[in-house]
Amino acid sequence: MxxxxxxxxxxxxxxxxxxxxxxxxxxxxxxxxxxxxxxHNPSLRYNxxxxxxxVAASHPALLMxxxxxFTAELHDSRAxxxxxxxRxxxxxxPKDTAHKFDQVFDLYxxxxxxxxxxxxxxxxxxxxxLALARPDLEPRITHLLLTxxxxxxxxxxxxLVKSYAIESFQEYFDKVxxxxxxxxxxxxxxxxxxxxxRRAAKDFLSTHSK
Length: 210
What we know:
The protein has helices spanning about 15-25, 25-35, 40-60, 60-65, 65-75, 80-90, 105-110, 115-135, 140-145, 155-170, 180-185, 195-210. The chain is mainly alpha-helical. The protein folds into two domains: about 1-100; about 110-210.
C-alpha cells in the first residue's frame, strides 16, 4: 500500500495517510525513514513528520518502538531535526510508562537556552503536555520556565518564549502546589515589549487571578 503514496507530494492527504499508516507497517517504516537526518528531501521530510504527528496523536503506542530514533533527533545539530524530536516526544510521553524521558530531560529542556528561537518556543509550548503527563517532573519543569533566559536571544524574543511558557502554565496551573511564583511571573509580563506575551499574560490572569 505504501508504494501507492508519494510522501513527497506537496498535496498529500495527511489524514488519510495517517489512517493508512496505523495498519500498514511498510508505510510506517517509510515515514520513519522520511524524517531521518540522512533524508535531504525537504518535502518528504516535512510530510513524513506531519503524518507521524497525526499517528502520534491518535495511536501514540504505535510509535513507542521508535522512541530512541526520536530522541536521537535532539542530538542533531540542525534545528529542523531537533524540532521533529521535540514535537513527537511531547505527543508520546503519556505512553512512556518506563520513564525513558528522564534520560533526555536535560537535553530536551536544554534547547530552551540553545541558539535559535523556534525550538525554544516549541520546548516552552510542550512543557505543559510534559508536566501533565509526568506530575513528578512538574516542579523541575516549572522552575525551568520561571527562571528562563536565553542568552542567545534579545529581550523581545526572550519574552516571546515566555508567552509559550504562560500557555503551558495554563494547562496545569490548577494542579501546582505553589501557584504564587507562576502568578508573579505572569504579572511581570503584563507590560512586556512582546505583544504576544502581553496577550498571554492578560488571558491567563483573566482566568486565574482572583
